[in-house]
Design brief:
The complex is a heterotrimer of chains A (317), B (342) and C (301). Chain B has 342 residues and is α/β, with parallel strands linked by helices. Chain B contains 11 helices and 12 strands. The chains are: A mainly alpha (317), B alpha/beta (342), C mainly alpha (301). The interface between A and C is large, with 46 and 40 residues. The structure holds adenosine-5'-triphosphate, iron/sulfur cluster and magnesium ion. Iron/sulfur cluster is lined by residues 249, 286, 288-289, 292, 294-296, 299, 304, 317-319 of chain B.
């Protein structure tokens, strides 16, 4: 058990190293660089000299290995650098944008799980009968709807029928929780429904698996009431895998919400990454991708470890 | 009047385009306080037949298509689920085949042992716990106070089976069905568990249905034996009759494959050749025909009739009488001493 | 438990029995059959682009966002209306479908193939190779998929091929992980060990034993990937990074329509709905395929 944890944590080191390397090259495969954008922005004819000055300042003229070494050294010192465009520190940008992205993902998971878990359980218990058919059909339909399209439709409906548009503001969640909630609820519903479509199936199949176990037969043979068999014997065994799966899907949501952030004009990390990409703001792009990727990696590791720690059956081995 | 009377029970599993006739018209009975064995090779339908008694067949795909299961004159198959519930563990309790997976891994032993008593006997938590402590002691688990708080993964296989037995005893049923209670345990522990079950049921006047694929194991414990093959019972008789005057080629085959010290060691063991038939595609005629040494022409055409070879001894075979008179030789086959480990 | 031997779906079917086996599978999985039929119908619809099309896909025939069943300038019938530039939506759907389907099929094909090879080699070689390969896979899985795709399309230009390669990368990590764990159990099986002991070469073991045995898993992964790729293409388009006009794709139809919503919702609803129907149909096929091929689900009680 302890060895397992140590091993897994140690593997994070090469993983982070590869992640940092990959983000570096991901930025460098982009055609052009920030300088072209900076100069052209003023509307002036591209001035080779100005371009060179900027490139020199940002170190873009150095050979690739030198740039790579610089990036790695910088990371080793715990420094994510500054945006090439705005000169703001990357950490600052991450801090500003992460809130929206994370809140959106959390809200989506809550909405999704609130639908998926009861429906999935019901579906499993009613297996083959009409409630199961209905739930499965719905989940298949929502699985097929692109969530951004759902978002567009929702937005459209509200705009045309209620002339409502998502509020735009700068305050953080703590300053203005209600406003933040209003702005996030629609995209969260859109993402949450897609999430629920997947999670319902997972819940159902997990629950079915549990209901097939020998100990459920034992419980029934004792002459317990059916409710007790489900609630006391089946559910506790299904909860852990369901939560684990949801937590793993949560990581996917962090990465997948870019388009929705864009549609609803949310200042999140996804949109920031798109902007940084189009402006060839290498430092910012690398920083954002690195932070997101590292978070997902650590998160998945944590889920794994928690699962191992909680599951009594695994502990035995 | 028998305690339990099963008549023409049929339980089928419906696949997409096949029907598995796991249990195909079996009949037998168990008297009050009696110990009876149901013996047959793996996959012949023993578990399915016993699960059918308590309505525990997974459905779909399983369905009881015919028959009666009379428990003191009540046909259990006609009961509503809520009434059937009252019979489970209160009247008929089960000990399952797989001790490792039959206990819920996330619930402690106390709850798993007491919940049946609370539901079925209306005991308070306190009373149930006191009884649980007694029961653990009875089944030979020491330090019951500490054990109650533990979880299944803290018990060995043998210990878990003891817990299962305690659960089965807990509501004072009239009948305990033990479905291969020892198959997955060490040989030494097997004997301990069987002895324990025998003593406990005998002391309490409970009937015991012992299911096994190993005829040798049950020899010492049971009064009557039903031999099952491919979903049907093919021979029935007292323990002595079955061992001394087996009247069905399959039973003879089973007996020949048991290692015994009381028999001439030079006659080597010979297991029955071949495989039992696929329950989804049963042959016409006798199900055992393909593997049978005594086969006659008729066997592959017609399913044999059940022949009474002695007053309480039947065999479903066309040549039952011949086999009977052949085996009913003066040499005693019934094991008198210890069985060799099986 | 239904064992492998008495399951007709698994026993090796001779060529002349393949047809009847397919028919049996269809009967057992009616939803899969429905999905297959819808998919085939849509494919026919798409393949008839340019042959059985009412109009030219790039010609303006009417005013902005003409409603469904309306008439164009020259009295042409626009069954599904006109788009933001007055082009026939029906015709465009047909043409766009080609792009979307080519991407939808090619991206997972490429990605799953790569993933399968990586997964099998990683599982079979084990040791340091496995350790290193799995680190890269870890990273691929935790990287934001769209970001990866964005960078690659920008690097390769906005061609259909650029998008295919970009989207295939998203599939490689996940599918190699799945195939690897499957191949790991396979390579511990006796027959592989036996083949090894008999001195079969690595390549032979991989091609004769491991690869054929992973085909079922890969096929399911591929089917799941088709729907995902079609959706992802639309997502990329939405960010302005997908297939660029004038080549139509369902994704970019949706994207450009968005600004003209107020003139007529149909120009955004129709491509979105089309994507949804296609993905739905393909998912149905995928689910049935999984039922047939996944040994865990087979013979469930
Ligand atoms: N849930 C199920 N679905 C389909 N078929 C089943 C199911 N359960 C049992 N069967 C079939 O019923 C037959 C009898 O099974 P059963 O479990 O009763 O055998 P058994 O005699 O108890 O064997 P064992 O000694 O291995 O426990 C088997 O051949 C099996 O194929
Ligand atoms: S009926 Fe025939 S085949 Fe069947 S057991 Fe008797 S002799 Fe053998
Ligand atoms: Mg059994």
């Amino acid at each position: 058990m302890r060895d397992y944890i140590i091993r897994r944590v140690l593997l994070l080191i090469p993983n982070l190293f590869i992640l940092a390397t990959l983000t570096f090259f991901l930025a460098r495969v982009l055609p052009g660089d920030v300088a072209l954008g900076l100069v052209a922005e003023d509307g002036s004819v591209i001035d080779q000299e100005a371009v060179q000055v900027i490139r020199e300042r940002l170190g873009l003229n150095d050979p690739m290995p030198v740039q790579y070494a610089r990036w790695m050294l910088q990371l080793l010192q715990g420094d994510l650098g500054k945006s090439d465009v705005s000169d703001l520190s990357v950490v600052h940008v991450v801090a500003e944008t992460a809130e929206v992205t994370f809140l959106l993902a959390i809200l989506s998971v809550i909405i999704g799980a609130a639908m998926a878990i009861p429906f999935g359980i019901l579906s499993a218990m009613m297996r083959g009968r009409w409630p199961d058919q209905v739930i499965r059909t719905f989940s298949a339909v929502f699985l097929a709807l692109p969530n951004f399209w759902l978002g567009i439709l929702l937005l459209l409906a509200l705009v045309t029928w209620f002339s409502w548009s998502p509020p735009i503001f700068q305050e953080t969640f703590l300053d203005a929780p209600v406003k933040q909630f209003q702005r996030l609820i629609l995209p969260a519903v859109a993402i949450g429904t897609s999430f629920a479509a997947v999670a319902t199936r997972l819940t159902r199949s997990t629950m079915l698996e549990v209901l097939n176990q020998d100990y459920i037969r034992t419980a029934r043979a004792k002459g317990l009431f059916p409710n007790r068999v489900i609630i006391r014997h089946a559910l506790p065994n299904a909860v852990l895998p369901i939560i684990t799966l949801s937590a793993l899907l949560f990581a996917g949501l962090l990465n997948g919400a870019v388009v929705l952030e864009r549609i609803f004009a949310l200042p999140g990390m996804g949109v920031e990454i798109v902007t940084a990409t189009s402006e060839r703001d290498f430092q910012l792009l690398q920083g954002l991708v690195l932070v997101l990727g590292a978070f997902v990696m650590v998160w998945m590791l944590l889920i794994d470890l928690v699962y191992v720690a909680l599951d009594k059956r695994i502990q035995l081995e | 009047m028998p305690l339990l009377e099963i008549e023409n029970l049929k339980t089928y599993f419906y696949g997409d385009d096949t029907v598995v006739k796991a249990v195909d018209g079996i009949s037998y009975n168990i008297e009050e306080g009696e110990t009876v064995a149901l013996v047959g090779e793996s996959g012949c339908g023993k578990s399915v037949s016993s699960l059918s008694i308590l309505g525990l067949i997974p459905s779909p795909p399983g369905r009881i298509v015919d028959g009666e299961v009379r428990f003191r004159d009540t046909d259990l198959l006609q009961l509503q689920p809520s009434d059937m519930r009252r019979y489970r563990s209160r009247r008929i309790a089960m000990v399952f085949q797989e001790p490792m997976s039959s206990l819920n891994p996330v619930i402690n032993i106390e709850t798993q042992l007491t919940e049946g008593m609370i539901t079925q006997l209306g005991l308070t938590n306190r009373q149930a716990k006191d009884r649980a402590l007694e029961l653990l002691e009875t089944v030979g688990i020491s330090d019951p106070e500490r054990r109650l708080a533990q979880f299944p993964h803290e018990f060995s296989g043998g210990m878990r089976q003891r817990v299962m037995i305690a659960i089965a005893l807990s509501c004072e049923p009239d009948l305990i069905i033990a479905d291969e209670p020892t198959t997955s345990l060490d040989v030494t522990i097997q004997a301990q568990i069987l002895d324990l079950m025998q003593t406990l049921t005998r002391d309490r006047g409970m009937a015991l249905l012992l299911i096994t694929h190993n005829l040798g194991v049950v020899a010492r414990y049971v009064e009557r034996i039903n031999i099952m093959y491919a979903g049907r019972i093919i021979e029935h008789g007292s323990s002595t009759d079955i061992f001394e005057k087996p009247s069905h080629p399959y039973t003879v085959g089973l007996l020949n494959s048991i290692p015994r010290i009381d028999r001439d060691t030079r006659s080597s063991l010979d297991p029955i050749p071949g495989q039992p038939p696929d329950l989804a595609h049963l042959p016409d005629g006798c199900h055992f025909a393909e593997r049978c040494r005594n086969r006659i022409d008729r066997c592959t055409r017609e399913y044999p009739q059940t022949i009474q070879v002695e007053p309480r001894h039947t065999s479903t075979c066309w040549v039952a009488n011949e086999i009977h008179s052949n085996t009913a030789q003066p040499t005693p086959l019934m094991p008198k001493g210890e069985l060799k480990g099986v | 438990m239904i064992t492998a031997t008495n399951n007709p779906e698994l026993s090796p079917t001779r060529a002349n029995r393949t047809g009847s086996a397919a028919w049996r599978i269809m009967r057992r999985h009616p939803t899969g059959a429905v999905g297959l039929v819808i998919t085939i119908l849509i494919l026919l619809f798409i393949l008839s682009a340019g042959i059985l099309t009412p109009h030219k896909y790039d010609r303006t025939l009417s005013g902005k966002a003409a409603p469904m069943m309306s008439r164009g300038f020259d009295d042409e019938l626009l069954v599904l209306g006109g788009d933001e530039l007055g082009r026939d939506v029906l015709t465009r759907l047909q043409h766009a479908g080609r792009t979307s389907f080519v991407i939808g099929l090619a991206a997972p094909l490429l990605g799953v193939t790569l993933g399968t090879i990586i997964g099998i080699v990683s599982a079979y070689r084990g040791g340091i190779v496995d350790l290193l390969v799995q680190r890269v896979v870890d990273v691929l899985i935790s990287l934001p998929g769209l970001v990866l795709a964005m960078a690659v399309t920008l690097a390769l230009g906005f061609s259909v091929w650029g998008v295919i390669i970009a989207l295939s990368l998203n599939v490689v990590g996940g599918s190699s992980r799945v195939v690897r764990s499957h191949a790991l159990t396979q390579s511990q099986l006796e027959y592989v060990q036996a083949a090894r002991a008999l001195g079969a070469s690595d390549l032979r073991i991989i091609f004769r034993h491991l690869l054929p045995n992973s085909m079922a898993v890969s096929l399911v992964l591929f089917t799941v990937g088709v729907g995902a790729a079609i959706t992802a293409e639309a997502g990329l388009s939405f960010l302005g990074l997908g297939v660029q006009p004038p080549t139509p794709s369902w994704g970019n139809m949706l994207t450009f329509a968005q600004q003209y919503f107020r003139f007529g919702a149909h120009i955004a609803v129709i491509p979105g709905l089309t994507i949804a129907i296609v993905v739905f149909a393909i998912n149905l096929v995928g689910d049935s395929l999984r039922d047939v091929l996944d040994p865990h689900l087979r013979g469930r009680g």
